[in-house]
Design brief:
Length: 215
């Protein structure tokens, strides 16, 4: 955590509470407060280590969950000048351009991956071996929310992480769904508060990836 994480969360949280006072808030730094029927979910800086090191691969991630369903997702990567937006049933957009996923060739699939401290490192290593043995490539850039957004933009074909918190996952997962992709049911089993597995990607890749990792 950096001072930027705290400052950005305080600023966005204050704005949301001023404009949507009846709605709840869940932030990485300050936790949950307010109504649990409609909740804004914020990661003020996803990719904090990248940010501290001066790398451009970090973002702000904000989602809105209404009665157990994702309704809105926003991811903003300031250093890359990338603004992603998705609303349920309204599509996904990058800097105003509508995103539509295209299915990759089976032998040209690139998977984004994240590693969670809540899962054994051996599981992560085994997942990499599984992907490579299946002829798939993988990338890890250190900011899961932005990697999910880049799946929606077609720069990766799927994303896998054994456990993500909701503030990292939700906005990007809605982007992927609205771009025509497929995601696992992240909000099941109290995923909003506890986090969950993330398996999200192109419609032809996501089930293939799920089957490989289930072996």
């Amino acid at each position: 955590m950096s001072q930027a994480d705290l400052a950005v969360e305080q600023e966005i949280k204050g704005w949301l509470q001023a404009h949507f006072p009846e709605e709840g808030f869940l932030g990485e730094e300050s936790g949950f407060e307010g109504d649990d029927q409609t909740v804004w979910v914020l990661d003020p800086v996803d990719g904090t280590t990248n940010f501290i090191l001066g790398m451009d691969y970090w973002c702000i991630s904000l989602a809105r969950v209404c009665q157990g369903e994702l309704s809105l997702g926003i991811i903003y990567a300031p250093d890359r000048d990338e603004f992603f937006f998705a609303a349920r049933g309204e599509g996904a957009y990058l800097n105003g351009r509508r995103l539509t996923l295209r299915e990759p060739e089976p032998d040209a699939v690139v998977i984004g991956m994240g590693r969670s401290s809540r899962a054994p490192a051996s599981d992560y290593a085994r997942a990499i071996d599984t992907l490579l043995d299946a002829g798939l490539e993988y990338r890890r850039f250190g900011a899961g929310a932005l990697m999910l957004a880049h799946v929606a933009a077609g720069q990766l074909h799927a994303y896998y992480e054994a456990h993500m918190n909701s503030w990292d996952a939700l906005a990007g997962m809605l982007l992927i769904e609205e771009a025509g992709g497929t995601c696992n049911a992240f909000l099941a089993n109290a995923g909003l508060r506890r986090g969950n597995l993330v398996l999200a990607g192109c419609a032809s890749v996501q089930p293939r990836l799920a089957a490989l990792l289930a072996k």
